[in-house]
Amino acid sequence: MDQLQPKHLDTSRGFRYTYYFSQPKADDAKPAILLCHGWPDSAHLWKEIVDHILKSKQRLIIPDLLVCGGSSRPTDPIDFEIGAMVADVMQVIQAEKIEQNIIPMGHDWSGSYFVTRFYLFNSARMAGLVTFNVALQPARSEPFGLAIANSMTEKAFGCPLYAYWELFADPKGPGEIMTKNPQSVCHAMHGASNDWRKTIFCLPGAIRE
């Protein structure tokens, strides 16, 4: 990430965002690229591809999303309302005098979900949309149901893909289990065996243990 300029912005909601911006050698006529990481990553997820993107002379903005990297770490769930987070990141982009011709790119569940909403809420300003690992998630009229989603994915893929979300949804999960056991969380996120993700993430109760 040494090729990029680390910067900070305090948004109108009072949250500080750390982000990385390309040096002023970029071509303003080309679309600006917004790279958004998933969980549990940070802007540094993209470090291996930064050089390749910079060769295209496109402006590049890579933020640490809330609670990640050097950005603010609110604890109230309401602070993560998607429209408000989209507005935060738009303020980051506008601070670099970029108003339109933007291509948001997101990785994994949270990053891909975020950029699809960023695109939909600001479609007139967008030049495209790219998601990695997770396909476009259309807006739904009914509330998301974790048990229903796990049942559907188990029938389709042989295992409940969102089994690990049960820990996140438990009021005691993040605060009393994950925060007090950071090394175990890191090990669960980045285990080395070939079937690690399936064993830890897609087996009910496994990530809690």
Automatic annotation (TrEMBL):
GO annotation (BP), single: acylglycerol catabolic process
Keywords of the record: Hydrolase
Pfam families assigned to the protein according to its UniProt record, in alphabetical order: Abhydrolase_1
Family annotation (Gene3D superfamilies): alpha/beta hydrolase
Keyword Cytoplasm in record: no
GO molecular function per UniProt: monoacylglycerol lipase activity
Transmembrane segments: none
Gene Ontology cellular component annotations, sorted alphabetically: membrane
InterPro entries assigned to the protein according to its UniProt record, in alphabetical order: AB_hydrolase_1, AB_hydrolase_fold, AB_hydrolase_sf
Domain AB hydrolase-1: 31-134
Protein's recorded name: Bifunctional epoxide hydrolase 2
Originating organism: Lecanosticta acicola
Lineage, broadest ranks: Eukaryota, Fungi, Dikarya, Ascomycota, Pezizomycotina
